[in-house]
Write a structure and sequence with these properties.
- The structure is a single chain.
- Helices cover 39% and strands 23% of the residues.
- It is built from 14 helices and 15 strands.
- The strands form 3 sheets. A 7-stranded mixed β-sheet has the order 12-11-7-10-9-8-15. The protein has a 6-stranded parallel β-sheet with strand order 3-2-1-4-5-6, with helices on both faces.
- A hairpin with a 2-residue loop joins strand 11 and strand 12.
- Helix 2 packs across helix 13, helix 6 packs antiparallel against helix 14 and helix 7 packs parallel to helix 10.
- The two termini are 34 Å apart.
C-alpha cells in the first residue's frame, strides 16, 4: 500500500498533481486531452484492457499504457508517487476501480454515476472517507459558463421565485442501432442525470415526485423494449415543476437547452452553434448548425472539471458535488424508470 501524499507536500514542492487515467474510450479520449493540456497535472499513464486502443491514446499523449490499475500503481510507485485517478469506464466497473484506488490512498474523479444504485454510491463514499481520499463525481453542467450564469441569475433573485423549468436534451449524432440494441439502455438511465443534478443545484431543492413516459421510435426498438424518447415531470418540494424531455434523434445537431421561469422573469441557456457567422439574402437568414455533439459543446466544461480536480489534489479544495447530490440524482433516475414502467406518479422519500 502506498504512502499518502499530503496536500502540504504538494504545495511545498510546487508540484503538479500526478494522475492516472483509467479508460481509453470516448470519455477517456476527452479526459486525456484535458489532463494533458492542464499545466498543473501530469498524466502518468492510461489504463485499459483494450491494448490497441490504449496504445493509440498513450502514444498521442506520450504517456505509458497499462492493462490494469494494479499494474499501473505498482509500476509507477516503484520510482515515484501518484496523487489521483480519473475513471472513465462503464459504470459496472466503478466499484472495483474506486475501491482499489482508495485502498492505495489515491483520490478519485469518476464519470457519473458513481455506481448503479443509491446504496452502492453511499458505500463507495464511505470507503473513500475511511481511507481519507476524495471521491469526485463529474456532473459537467456545473462547470459550464452558460449553466453557471443561469445558476447565478436564479440564485440572485433576478427572476423572482422559480415557478417552472423546461429542459430539452437532444442527442446527436443519433447512436448506432448496435449501441441502442446491445447496451445503449433506457435514455432515462443514460442521459437524464446531468440535467437532474443541474436543476437540483440551481433550485437548491429536492424532487418529491416524478412522472415519466417513454416511447420507442420504431418497431424494432419497441420489440427490444428500448426507449429512445422520454419526458419526465418532476415536482420539487417548494412547488417548482420541471419538465425534462430527452431524445436520441436530434439529427440537426446537439440540442441542449434550459429555461427557468419565475415571478419576475426567465433565465435561459440556449444552444451553441458551430460558429458565429450568419448569411442574409433574399432566401432568408442562414445560420450554422448547432455544435456536433457533447464533446464539442462541453469541451471547456470538461477542461474546467479537470482543473477543479487539480484544485482538490493540490490545494485540498472541496469538490462541489457531494454524496448527497449523487444519491439524490440516482434516486430521481430510479423513480423515473419506475414511473415509466408502471405509468404511475412515484413519490420520493425526503430522508436522503
Amino acid at each position: 500500500m502506498t504512502a499518502f501524499r499530503s496536500t502540504s507536500m504538494l504545495l511545498r514542492n510546487n508540484a503538479q498533481a500526478r494522475v492516472l487515467l483509467v479508460g481509453s474510450g470516448r470519455m477517456g479520449n476527452i479526459r486525456a486531452r484535458a489532463l494533458y493540456g492542464n499545466p498543473r497535472i501530469q498524466l502518468c499513464g492510461i489504463v485499459d484492457t483494450n491494448i490497441e486502443q490504449t496504445k493509440t491514446l498513450s502514444e498521442l499523449y506520450r504517456t505509458p499504457q497499462f492493462a490494469s490499475l494494479d499494474e499501473a500503481i505498482s509500476s509507477i510507485e516503484t520510482h515515484s508517487t501518484l496523487d489521483g485517478v480519473v475513471i472513465s469506464t462503464p459504470t459496472p466497473t466503478h466499484e472495483s476501480l474506486i475501491t482499489k484506488a482508495a485502498q492505495n490512498n489515491l483520490s478519485i474523479f469518476t464519470e457519473k454515476p458513481v455506481d448503479e444504485t443509491a446504496k452502492k454510491i453511499s458505500s463507495l463514499f464511505q470507503i473513500c472517507n475511511n481511507h481519507n481520499v476524495k471521491l469526485c463525481c463529474g456532473y459537467q453542467r456545473r462547470f459550464d459558463l452558460s449553466y453557471q450564469s443561469l445558476y447565478h441569475q436564479v440564485n440572485s433573485g433576478a427572476i423572482g421565485t422559480p415557478l417552472s423549468a423546461t429542459i430539452f436534451f437532444g442527442d446527436h449524432p443519433v447512436p448506432s442501432r448496435q449501441f441502442l440494441l446491445q447496451g445503449g439502455a433506457n435514455i432515462i438511465t443514460d442521459c437524464s442525470a446531468h440535467d437532474i443534478d443541474f436543476i437540483r443545484w440551481t433550485l437548491d431543492d429536492e424532487v418529491v415526485s416524478v412522472y415519466a413516459v417513454g416511447t420507442s421510435s420504431d418497431a424494432e426498438l419497441r420489440q427490444k423494449n428500448v426507449i429512445d424518447n422520454a419526458t419526465m415531470l418532476m415536482k420539487f418540494s417548494r412547488g417548482t415543476n420541471v419538465t425534462l424531455t430527452l431524445t436520441r434523434g436530434a439529427n440537426y445537431g446537439y440540442d441542449q437547452r434550459c429555461e427557468v421561469f419565475g415571478t419576475n422573469g426567465m433565465a435561459t441557456v440556449k444552444n451553441v452553434a458551430e460558429n458565429a457567422s450568419e448569411l442574409a439574402n433574399e432566401a432568408g437568414l442562414h445560420r450554422p448548425k448547432w455544435q456536433h455533439s457533447f464533446p464539442q459543446r462541453f469541451e471547456a466544461a470538461f477542461a474546467q472539471e479537470m482543473d477543479a480536480f487539480a484544485d482538490t489534489l493540490i490545494c485540498g479544495a472541496p469538490w462541489p458535488i457531494k454524496e448527497v447530490d449523487c444519491v439524490a440524482v440516482q434516486r430521481v433516475c430510479d423513480a423515473a424508470l419506475e414511473s415509466c414502467e408502471t405509468s404511475q406518479v412515484v413519490h420520493l422519500e425526503r430522508d436522503v
